From TrEMBL:
Membrane spanning stretches: 12-31, 43-69, 89-108
Lineage: Bacteria, Pseudomonadati, Pseudomonadota, Betaproteobacteria, Burkholderiales
Annotated Pfam families: Hexapep (PF00132)
Gene3D superfamilies per record: Hexapeptide repeat proteins
Transmembrane helix recorded as keyword: yes
Key words of the record: Acyltransferase, Membrane, Transferase, Transmembrane, Transmembrane helix
Protein name (Swiss-Prot/TrEMBL): Acyltransferase
Sample GO molecular function, one term: acyltransferase activity
InterPro entries the record matches: Hexapep, Transf_Hexapept/Carb_Anhydrase, Trimer_LpxA-like_sf
Length: 224
């Protein structure tokens, strides 16, 4: 695993400072002027925390507009590495607590993933964790089961790669399944509970896959 470099940490800390300054400024200029009653102090703290996350979503998306995440191998000391590692710092220090939790209702979790850049079709929800939302593309009427994990990064020693995950319409990803970087899953496919779909696997429309590593259990023709 590569070390995150000082300049990359500095960029993230500067962005974090902007986020905190905006949140505190909004809290003092707007929320503090409201009639908050006996719980004024608690309300101001909660408002500041909420605003930190809202501004974090905004600043993060603006950062991705300026430095989009690359697809493929990330070369060390490159602009792509800066984008990838600052993105990692956002998740490690801010967003991981939102993604890896059972306390946020699934419909609200969908809104968080959309705010972080995931492409989710209508009526698609995840009760698991989408670890790389900007590189996750899921169609409509798809469900990601409880404690399933979908991620788009590959870390192999010092090698770092980013490959988007593409999941079609009406797909079922079973509970505790793992879907790795570069996986493509066709419409109406099923990934069984606890399966591990290794990187760059192609699952055809209507197929059923399961096991560790996942393999095809049933083709679309068999299902018909």
């Amino acid at each position: 695993m590569r070390a995150i470099k000082f300049c990359q940490v500095a960029v993230f800390l500067w962005l974090l400072l902007v986020i905190v300054a905006l949140a505190i400024g909004t809290t003092l200029l707007v929320v503090d002027r409201l009639p908050l009653g006996d719980f004024r102090g608690v309300t101001l703290v909660l408002a500041a925390v909420l605003l930190i996350y809202l501004y974090a979503f905004l600043v993060y998306r603006l950062f991705l507009l300026a430095l989009p995440l690359p697809e493929g191998e990330v070369v060390e000391h490159s602009r792509d590495e800066l984008a990838a590692n600052v993105n990692s710092l956002f998740y490690l220090l801010l967003f991981n607590s939102l993604i890896c939790t059972h306390f946020i209702p699934v419909p609200l979790q969908r809104l968080i993933y959309l705010a972080l850049g995931a492409r989710l079709g209508t009526n698609t929800y995840s009760a698991g964790a989408l670890l790389d939302p900007p590189l996750t593309r899921i169609g409509s009427n798809t469900i990601i089961g409880h404690e399933a994990v979908v991620f788009a990064h590959v870390v192999e020693g010092a090698r770092l790669e980013l490959w988007p995950v593409q999941i079609g319409n009406t797909v079922t990803i079973g509970a505790k399944a793992v879907v790795m970087a570069g996986v493509q899953i066709g419409d109406n496919a099923i990934v069984s509970t606890g399966a591990v779909v290794t990187k760059n696997t192609r699952i055809g429309a209507g197929e059923v896959w399961g096991g560790i590593p996942a393999r095809k259990l049933k083709s679309a023709a068999d299902a018909a």
